[in-house]
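Section 3.1: Structural characterization of target chains.
Under the original work plan, the team committed to producing a structural model for every single-chain target entering the pipeline before any wet-lab resources were allocated. The record below documents one such target. The sequence was received from the expression subgroup and is listed exactly as submitted; it comprises 274 residues.
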Amino acid sequence: MLAELSEDAATGQIAEIYGEIRRLWAVPYVSSLQRHLATRPGWLQWAWAALAPAFLSGQAQTAGWRVADGLDLPAIQPLGSPDLQRLGLDAAGQRTVAEVCAGFVRVAPVNLMFSGLLRRLLKGERPIGAGAPAAAWQPPTALPPLPALVDIATLDEDAQAVLLRLGTDVDGTPFVPGLYLILARWPAYIAHLGRVLAPLGRAPETDAARAALLAGIDGAVAELFPTLPALSEQDIPEADAFPAVLAALDMYRRTSPEMVIFGRLIAGALPGNG
């Protein structure tokens, strides 16, 4: 897994940025993307100083959400409450799963906007705009707190295998998205999702939805990037770390579309959410 600075451990300016991200993303947590950047001295501070105007104005969030809302998605078989009860999900658990999915579906497009804008900076492009006024946009109501992630090391071999099958590999290091690490608190349910979702990860309709999402995000990033304020060149981090950060952004570019697609599919298969 990539190194991260937890929200509990954040202090000073990083803690302030974490608070802004939670507010502007309208969720009760900071994603592993920003938590990873925070482990690199000065990186999160620099990235936020450069990119914050796009999020304070709401332009980045609304663009990402608009693209995600317009996707044509594959489908999975909906489950009734009796089936879910057999998988360990009572009514409260079903509500929690729906809220967890809503959180990841809300966050992932915004993180794709964040990483797309940051990628352009790391590729040497420089914005020349003035930025948009920050006071004209208010984020939606934040979603409720999410359950804690399950520590994969505490699970038995079968459960670990399910999570690794749902995850991805980054230069030989396994990465399991937080969505699955939360849903792993219901072992029978995550095993069911592993059987249902793993084949869809390679399906043509999933590839088409993923490509459409990334194309839409890339188009929105291309329009928004030039409007960002010009940078102070002396604040840019050392270029030696650029390849490693770009590799991390590449990983999130692979996993974030899945959070949108599969998050919506999982929620849509719950009673009353189809």
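The longest strand covers residues 168-170.
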